């Protein structure tokens, strides 16, 4: 598998914006490993975490193309920045009452939690790095996974510089903020 | 819009009166004394006028009818009724290319809007600022597959710079203002504003807002870093075999004068792309001509041998580069380009200078110095010497009519001053080779999309932009038949353009590819034409037929003298090909050369060669 780059984009929370972004990826042939969209503390602003297959050059072109979308506010390739990267998953396993205690121990070990128990099943919720979730899924497999859902990656750089940079397009230009 | 309480500030401001002249609109632009409350239709037209629009090309229909119904209140907006919406989009492009302003096309929902799409895509690929206004079914019907409903913002998403769906009258002004701003700023392009019928019918408060448009996520302007400019100067100074590329961006930025100055200071030769052809005068001794698939041999050879390419406002299209793996391997590349997404897209560049070509040339010019480049220039002249067959003047008249004759004579007779609007195909390449453009923006053609049928409607648009200039359409018999219905639009509008149909009875460029690459199997390329003289007559126009070179000058003279549109049917050699040619994807210097026989043996029929006589 090709190397992955993680981009964070702030976009206007308007109808059709996700469609514009998705259409761009499709048209330019970018291979998206994961895409997460959600609201932010700013009303009217959504944040996307995009994981794309490719090298830094691919990410740079993708960033430049994202900037061409009028509704995209800012983009940052955070692959090489120290960052917290998380995924969340809900996993429903088939577990008879007599094996439940053992399953709960596994959940404990992974710092996951049980969010639902029925006579024959339980749902575990796990948050963590994609590796950790993968490992958790592996250990649950012997029980029989009947359903699973995963959010896709979300990411945030550590430290002060949290917001994606306002200046982009590599180091080759200064973006001019248009005259007010 | 529900009546919102008018603030005291609004009452105090005289701008509430719609007729208030503003900086961007002509004074007294509004014909009617609009009150504050206007219908969406009135807001639409008033906003267009205030954006400086005086002519638009369109076609009415159900969803856009409320807007058309309001149009008589705005007599300063001239509406040209085209015969097909594709013509409206191309006319808007032609108008834009000739005027430098935003062109406007109007269509109804559904089929009206989808018919625009070819022109929209053309404007996208050639970076032409147009705004397309489309009617849409009423907002409660959106998504219900209503009569003539098409999701045109969805359809045009990948072929517009941006688009809007407007469902409320109070949003129309802002959407249209943003559309004009986006279309024109930065790297220009087409913008669609889709307005629902109820938004056109309902009323809202209208108060003209002439503060500059602000879009938080839109940053069209860039500036290069000073250190990069310094590096560019050093690279230019140390180059032994440099070459400048003039692309469409040179013209868009209005940088032709600065380019001349750069060449005067540095003595670097200039090759042009098809769309950049008028960016540098053909008669300048440093002009090499067009590069790429049908560029002259010496241009492509010089590119392959060069050690520095200074690419100005161009995007290394595959028709320009040929095989990327072998393209200009010895050259370092400086890419002056406004769109960061074009940098390193296809060709790896050593130094991108992202920004406006004019601004960057202004910054570079004080620092570049003269270097003696005699060796390099002499070498290019040597390359050129062998290929001097382009000098069509030496091509004897053997009684046959070649397209090259027609275009060369047209150039001579119009003194190279006409606006030439070409269609797509062989004639387009011959025009690029034989009509020597010395003046900026005098060639209007479809480059990136290669849209047959472009020329006639685009020329019509150019006519509205330039009422006093001589305009020639050069089209093939294939492309002309695609949009010939616009002839009657010209008649209805009382507008004249001259039309040269390069009629060879084939879809010539496809036939040429069949000859070179498909074993000479002419599948679906032989094409009949109507009698163009009778066709002209049916439209109440004059048609002329030319079959010999000796008749060319007379026909051109008559066409220029007559007051109305004239069609000249040039019956040229049927099996002539465009030389030289770089086969698609081949190395740039692996050209199929022009048969030498064209010059040396007038007796021998020169045209049907294998093309492998290099």
Shape descriptor of chain B reads globular
Helicity of chain B, as a percent range: 25-40%
Specify the structural class of chain A: alpha+beta
Biggest interface found: A-B, 33 and 33 residues
- Low-pLDDT ranges of chain B: 1-29, 597-614
Q: Total domains of chain B, how many?
A: 3
What oligomeric state do the depicted chains represent? Answer: heterodimer
Strand content of chain A: 35-45%
Question: Mind sketching the topology for me?
Answer:
The complex is a heterodimer of chains A (180) and B (614).
Chain A: E1 4-12, H1 17-28, E2 32-39, E3 45-53, H2 56-67, E4 72-77, E5 83-94, H3 100-109, E6 113-117, E7 121-128, H4 130-140, E8 145-150, E9 154-157, E10 173-176
Antiparallel strand pairs in A: 1-3, 1-4, 2-3, 5-7, 5-8, 5-9, 6-7
Chain B: H1 8-12, E1 37-39, H2 40-50, E2 55-58, H3 65-70, E3 78-81, H4 85-99, E4 103-107, H5 111-125, E5 130-136, H6 152-155, E6 162-166, H7 172-184, E7 190-196, H8 197-201, E8 203-205, E9 221-224, H9 226-238, E10 242-246, H10 248-252, H11 256-266, E11 270-272, E12 287-290, H12 297-305, E13 308-312, H13 318-321, E14 332-337, E15 351-354, H14 357-364, H15 374-386, H16 403-413, E16 419-422, H17 426-434, E17 443-444, H18 455-465, E18 471-476, H19 477-483, H20 486-493, E19 498-503, H21 508-517, H22 532-538, E20 542-546, H23 552-561, E21 566-571, H24 597-600
